Amino acid sequence: MNAIELARAIPKAELHIHIEGSLEPELIFELAQRNGVVLAYPSVEALRAAYAFTDLQSFLDIYYAGASVLLQPQDFHDMAWAYFLRAKADNVIHTELFFDPQTHTARGVPMATVIEGLSGACKRAESELGISSALILCFLRHLSEEDAFATLEAALPYRGHFIGVGLDSSEVGHPPEKFERVFARCRELGLKLVAHAGEEGPPDYMWQAIDLLKVQRIDHGVAALQDPLLMAELAHTRMPLTVCPLSNLKLCVVDDLRDHPLKKMLDAGLCATVNSDDPAYFGGYMNANFEQTVLALDLSREDVVQLARNSFEASFVSEQRRLEMF
Ligand code: ES4
Ligand code: ZN
């Protein structure tokens, strides 16, 4: 079995997937029809043709527009269920899903609709597909601290349905320090903490995520390569990085997959993992990310095993469950 075949077959955990980013154009049109939502694009093909991004913001504009078709609990369930079927096909046995409640509550969709729809799909994935999962509520960093606090408050009646919080959306100009007090409150509540940092932003945003937000994982973190002290810290503490190679390529964070820093991260002893981020928009789910990265960086079978092992080490499953899974 070569490294690509091994990457496809090996059991793995996915830790960086925005569930709204798994909404395929076909399902966007189906839900638009079901809910009587009028889209700015006449067809699936026209929508897909608009997926030519130059940076993070050019993607986010289309991603938030796509999410506008989600109105009922069933819509959130159907979106997540479609993702779980893809995860199953790629031998993903555990996943921790990001969701962006503010994208929905700002349109008048109740928090209960979002969380109950997603949570129902998670339960079904466990019983019908044998995939364990958990939800992570992400705050949109382009919105205010006050808005984040209000979102946390609205979600607390559903505290049992999510394990942690994250920070996503437009990074540059919205440093982690903007949410220091929100994250401190989440820490008091016993929530797990993660944040996007070092995707388009500088290594300093990664330091802020670690020192001010006290995160347990960093999402992306590709900027770490610019800061040798940060690399040493990440290696020493085994701070996990949820890296998304095809996302970085599609959002022009790297010009060519052959320039991607993933192999350097592994060689430096970092707990780097491979993830799909927004698979419906970036050209592939977990195995597509593994396959293309193995090819571009000439990863070995040992690298593939290390990436799979890292995905479980970086996950929030109990030590006991982790030993059962890998
Ligand atoms: C995202 Cl790729 C990426 N970066 C930041 N925020 C996001 N939300 C969804 N995808
Ligand atoms: Zn992301």
TrEMBL record:
Chain sites annotated for binding Zn(2+): H16, H18, H196, D277
Q: Where is the active site?
A: E199
Instruction: Please verify whether the record's keywords include Hydrolase.
Output: yes
GO terms for molecular function, please?
Answer: hydrolase activity
Cofactor note as given: Binds 1 zinc ion per subunit.
Supply the alphabetized keyword list: Hydrolase, Metal-binding, Nucleotide metabolism, Zinc
**EC no.?**
3.5.4.2
Specify the Adenosine deaminase domain's residue ranges. Answer: 11-326
> What InterPro entries does its record include?
A_deaminase_dom, ADE, Ado/ade_deaminase, Metal_Hydrolase
Question: Domain of life of the organism in this record?
Answer: Bacteria
Reactions it catalyzes: adenine + H2O + H(+) = hypoxanthine + NH4(+)
Q: Where does substrate bind?
A: D278
Which residue positions hold the site described Important for catalytic activity?
A: H220
Cofactor(s) demanded: Zn(2+)
Say which family it is in: Belongs to the metallo-dependent hydrolases superfamily. Adenosine and AMP deaminases family. Adenine deaminase type 2 subfamily.
As for what it does, the entry says:
Catalyzes the hydrolytic deamination of adenine to hypoxanthine. Plays an important role in the purine salvage pathway and in nitrogen catabolism.
Q: What is this protein called?
A: Adenine deaminase
